[in-house]
């Protein structure tokens, strides 16, 4: 009975020899899996490093103040700063200052960022606004916004209007530049692909241009938020009864460095919270990049 297996030599046509391999075929036992190296650059944050570094700095600061290496007048110990912060909290003044500062910050930053995104979209998509407003943005953006605060006081008074206008003006220009810069950086092959599929202009803007520009817009929002906090402190130092900036100014005038540092820490925590909120927005809206 003939065997069911047929060798490779039997299947080759007569008179035709098998091609000689260019390199010896490796045995299956010698094959090794090749590691995947196409993951790109994706640094992973190590959550415990930042608290460890912060705790080490505070410990060195406390030991230096306790042993006299650091002057108490220049830089009080963390324990004294904590006592000043506890007094601020127990007296209820922390709530009053935070309420006033957050109200100004939210109104000014929200209005400035919204107007900045709208203006950036117009500059990025349309020729007439681009020709009219892009040079104006380039000319006004380098001006220190704090220098315009007296002008805003003349226009809007010394009350809330001038403070909100300062924050709005400071957050407007970074958002404009980030928005039209992100639109200019959109891959044009994606737009041509949408046009080849007969997509409308509105659909291309909504489904291709804006999602592609969203990372740049969120990065601009992070920068605009930091500038808004800086301008908030500067605006509250002029004619404000409540606010973190007014509290820091009063502590500085009284040479109460423990209260001053407590106010600075409150501003730092506020900045961390804003940065965390923007990071949450990035995780939500930019899930398609994963």
From TrEMBL:
Tell me which Pfam families the record gives: BPD_transp_1
Query: How is this protein situated with respect to the membrane?
Result: Multi-pass membrane protein
Which domain of life does the protein's organism represent?
Bacteria
Q: Point out the signal peptide segment.
A: none
Q: Where is the composition biased (Polar residues)?
A: 1-11
Region described as Disordered? 1-31
Q: Name one GO biological process term.
A: alkanesulfonate transmembrane transport
Tell me, in one coarse class, where this protein mainly resides.
membrane
Q: Which residues cross the membrane?
A: 46-64, 105-125, 137-158, 164-183, 223-248, 260-279
Q: Does the keyword Membrane apply?
A: yes
Q: Where in the numbering of this chain does the ABC transmembrane type-1 domain appear?
A: 98-278
The task this protein performs is described as: Probably part of an ABC transporter complex. Probably responsible for the translocation of the substrate across the membrane.
Stated name of the protein? NitT/TauT family transport system permease protein
């Amino acid at each position: 009975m003939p065997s069911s297996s047929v060798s490779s030599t039997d299947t080759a046509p007569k008179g035709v020899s098998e091609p000689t391999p260019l390199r010896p075929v490796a045995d299956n036992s010698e094959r090794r899996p090749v590691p995947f190296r196409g993951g790109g650059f994706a640094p992973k944050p190590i959550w415990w490093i930042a608290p460890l570094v912060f705790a080490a700095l505070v410990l060195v600061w406390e030991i230096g103040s306790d042993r006299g290496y650091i002057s108490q007048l220049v830089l009080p110990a963390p324990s004294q700063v904590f006592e000043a912060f506890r007094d601020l909290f127990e007296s209820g003044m922390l709530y009053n200052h935070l309420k006033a500062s957050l109200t100004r910050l939210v109104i000014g930053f929200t209005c400035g960022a919204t107007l900045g995104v709208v203006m950036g979209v117009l500059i990025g998509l349309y020729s007439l606004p681009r020709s009219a407003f892009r040079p104006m943005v380039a000319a006004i953006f380098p001006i220190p916004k704090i220098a315009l605060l007296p002008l805003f006081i003349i226009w809007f008074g010394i009350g809330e209007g001038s403070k909100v206008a300062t924050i709005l003006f400071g957050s407007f220009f970074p958002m404009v530049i980030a928005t039209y810069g992100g639109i200019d950086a959109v891959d044009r092959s994606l737009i041509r692909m949408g046009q080849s599929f007969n997509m409308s202009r509105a659909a291309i803007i909504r489904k291709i241009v804006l999602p592609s520009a969203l990372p740049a817009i969120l990065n601009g929002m992070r920068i605009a938020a930091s500038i808004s906090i800086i301008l908030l402190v500067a605006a509250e130092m002029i004619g404000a009864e409540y606010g973190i900036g007014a509290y820091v100014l009063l502590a500085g005038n009284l040479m109460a460095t423990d209260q001053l540092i407590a106010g600075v820490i409150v501003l730092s925590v506020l900045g961390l919270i804003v940065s965390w909120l923007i990071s949450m927005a990035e995780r939500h809206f930019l899930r398609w990049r994963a």
